[in-house]
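User: Here's a chain of 406 residues. Predict its fold as tokens.
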Amino acid sequence: MKIKYTMPLFLLISVLFLNSGCSGESTSEVTAQPEEPVEPVKEINLATLITKEPENLASYSATIWGQVTDDGGTSIIERGVCFGLETKPNYDGNKTIASTVKGSGEFEVNLSNLAEGNEYYARSYAKNAKGIAYGNEIQFTTTFADPPIFSVGEKRVSGAHDIFIAIRLDEPGDTELKEIGVVYGLEQNPTLEDKIIKRENLDASFTERIRDLKENTFYFIRPYTKTSKRVVYGEEVLVKTINEGKFTYSFNGFDAANENHVRIKDAFDTATQYYNNFTSITKHVVVNYSPGTPTADANFAGNIRVGSNAGYQRTGTAMHEMAHTVGVGQHRKWNELIKAGIYQGAEANAILKMMTNDPNATVKGDGVHFWPYGVNGAHEDNGKEMTYIIHALIIQGMKADGLPSN
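Assistant: Prediction complete.
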């Protein structure tokens, strides 16, 4: 007899439930994916750099090398040198960007437009994403540029109260000229603290007149130049003024109510002042109003006649006739001094060259007159002071050349 096994109902239900639950799940194995590694954030710092001592130091420029020793962890955007007259110059002030950069981190900066003889402060800088970093500070002083050098010409011309000197530029120098002039005094090495004549124009050469001096006195004179930084003096010269002249005149029959007499007297008053200030001549002459004389005339004896033509009743004519009374065209020595129309005396010619700043100038003449500056007619009397001064100085030169006055 076959016994039949029957599973209890609750067990059957449990088995079915378990089988049903397993069939809903995937039978494949699931593998976990590893996470991406997170790199740490790189720290960025200011660069580190050094400033080296200047090279090629000059009056207006300098070369400075810097070196970035650590870029701070990022690229250098800009590098250069900050500089100025105060300590700790910075990026907001004067700066120059590097002109040359080497792979070693070194960089070159050429500073220009500096001022001569100034003390400067400088430090290198480097800019990266973090900001601006500075190197160590250095200090340097620019050199003084070569100044312009002026000298006094060899020929100096003296009156009793005036000295004329020719100033010329020998060396232009390398610095900007701010002022030029002459200093003078009774003691050696005059400075700006002594008597000074400042020129209005910065001329390369000029003739200077020193006034209001004492007669028969030695003066120390030297040119000076002033730049933005200093005063430079030229070579000193010693020049002596001459004795004041004693040229006098008397006017025969002077009548203050006669306008011709008044004009003639005024002319001779002024003319004798020029002769006494710029010659050492001692002479007395007699002036006559002579209506019948077409212009004017004079002789070595000291007699002068002036006619009624008002054009010849002037200072120039008076000086011209006074020159005749001291030998021009009236003394035998004159014929020795004039050869083939050229005046042979060295001193009068040297005075003319210097006073006109013309090295080729020569006094010319004939048996009666000389020129230029002889004032040989009313048309040559331009009324200018320098015409009268040079005339008198040439006469003084003729005295030195041997032309007698009496």
